[in-house]
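Quick one: examine this chain and its backbone structure tokens and tell me how the chain folds. Here goes:
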Amino acid sequence: MSQVIMMFLFPIGLYFYFFVERRDKPKYQKIFDDFGEKIKQDSALNNEEKREQYTQMLHQNGYTVTESSQTKVRGEKRILSMSLLAMSIGAYYVGVLVYLAYYFWVQKPNVVEYILEDD
């Protein structure tokens, strides 16, 4: 029974990777871009308040703030791809070890960076 499940996990993972995750990635990035534009256009906030808003947004979404200066705020987060994990399980469990090694040591984190302009 487990062989049958594993046989279907690889194509299901392929479908979700190419038709769901890759399609939704720009939508996910657009949330941060729209928030950045909204804060940038708000003239009632000074740079310190803008930096605080950006930092708060990154923390609420699970990002680690790696750089916060007078001119920019930068956050990083590793995103676990469930579709790639399903494909690696479909590759008879050896793929899971390969994917987890990739996730922890090779994968570059998703970076969101906001640039603060002078008032």
